[in-house]
C-alpha cells in the first residue's frame, strides 16, 4: 500500500475506532475486567493468585504499565482502538495481495467495527489481538519467499498469540508450522530459518515463564490453563450453547471443504495445493483455526475472526464476483448495525454522574448503573460483616467503591486465588461473612446459577432487597 494511502487510512480508522471505543458504555463486564486486572497488577497484585484471570497474561502485561501511569479505563479504550486499527490496516495489506479493492476492505472494516459496537463487544480483548497476529502471519505467508524478516515476524506473532490465548494460539501455531512446511520446505536454508523461528519462540516463552516464576504463580497458571475453570460454562442458555457449537461445526466444515475441493480439483495431494490454490488454502487454514477456538460465547468479539476469514474466502470464490460478495456481506452487517444503532443511540449520552469517578471519568455510563452501585454500597455499609458479591458486574464495584474495599469482595471472575468459584465459596463456609447475590439479572450465566444454587443450599436468607438477596 502506498505511504500516502496508508497514512490516510490510519487516520480514518483511529478516529472512527477511537470514537467507538470511547462510546462503549461503562457497564460491560468484559470491558471492565481488563482495567480491573491491569490496575491490580500495577498495584502489586499477583495474577492467577490474587487476580483470577482465565487466559495467558499478554494482554494484561501490555495494559498494566499504562494503567499504572494513567489510572483510567480510557487507557484500555485507547488500546482497543489501536488493536482494531491494526487489524483494519492488516486486512488492507492482505487484501492487496489477494487483489481485493481497498474501498471494499475499508467498507467491511467500518461495518464490522460498528457491528461489534452495537452488539456491546467492542472492547480490548484477546480474540482481536489474535486476529491481528494471525493477519500479520498470513500477510507473510502469502509472499513467494520466506525471508529472514518474514521468519522473525511469523515467529514473534505466532508465539505471542499463544501467550494471548492458549487455545486459539496453539492451533494457529500448529497451522503456521504446517503451512511453512508445505510451502517453503524446498527453499534454500529452510531448516536454518525454521530453527531461527523456534529459537525466537523459545526465548519469548522463556521470558513469560520466568515472569510467572518470579511471581510465584506458575502452579496457579498451569492449573488454570489445563483445568481450573473449565468445569464452568459461561454461556447464557442451552439454546445459545447449541447455536455456538452449530456455528463452530458449520464453520469448520465450510473452511475444511475448501481444502478438500482444492485438492480434488487439483488432482494432486495436499503438498501440491499451494502451486495453484495457495490463497484458498491459507485463508481456509486460518478460518478453521478461528472457528475451532472462538470459545463458546455467542458475541461479536469472539466471532469476529471467523467472520473476517469467511469474507476473505468469499472473495476468492470467483474473482469476477468479489465485489458483489463483499457488498452482500457488508450490506448484511450494515443492516444489523443500523437497526441496533437506531435503538441504542438515544442512550449514548445518558447517566453521567458516575463519570466523575477517576476510573470512569469522561466515559458514557450504562443507564441504571449508578442506582445499582449506590444500592449495593448502602447494603455493604449496613452489613456488620465482610460481604462477598456474586454478580455479573462485580468488577465495576471494585473500581467505583474503593473506599469500602476492606469490607467486600466479589466472586464472578474475581479474587478467587486460582481456584474455581465453587471451590472458593466452599471455603467461605469457614468464615463469618455474608454473601450478596443478584437475584434478577438479564445476563445470568450458568456460572452464576451454579454458585447461586450452592449458596441457597448452604446459606440462609438474611434479607431481601428487591434485586439483591443477602445470605449468611
Kindly list the characteristics that best describe this protein.
globular, single chain, 472 residues, 19 helices
Biggest sheet details: 5 strands, mixed
User: Could you list the spans in which at least 5 consecutive residues all have pLDDT below 50?
Assistant: 228-236, 413-417
DSSP, total strands = 5
Helix content: 55-70%
> What is the count of helical runs?
19
The main sheet orders its strands as 2-1-3-5-4
Radius of gyration: 24 Å
Content of β-strand = under 5%
Kindly describe this structure.
A five-stranded mixed β-sheet has the order 2-1-3-5-4, sandwiched between helices. A hairpin with a 3-residue loop joins strand 4 and strand 5 (468-471). The protein is globular, with a radius of gyration of 24 Å. The chain is 64% helix and 4% strand. The longest helix has 29 residues, at 238-266. By secondary structure, it is mainly alpha-helical.
Quick recap of the structure?
The protein has 472 residues and is mostly helical.
Write the layout of secondary structure elements.
Elements: H1 3-23, H2 29-42, H3 58-69, H4 73-97, H5 102-118, H6 126-141, H7 148-162, H8 166-184, H9 190-215, H10 218-225, H11 238-266, H12 273-276, H13 278-292, H14 300-314, H15 322-344, H16 369-382, E1 387-390, H17 394-400, E2 408-410, H18 421-428, E3 434-438, H19 446-458, E4 461-464, E5 468-471
Parallel strand pairs: 1-2, 1-3
Antiparallel strand pairs: 3-5, 4-5
Helix pairs in contact: 1-4, 1-5, 2-3, 2-17, 4-5, 4-6, 5-15, 6-7, 6-8, 6-13, 6-14, 7-8, 7-9, 8-13, 11-13, 13-14
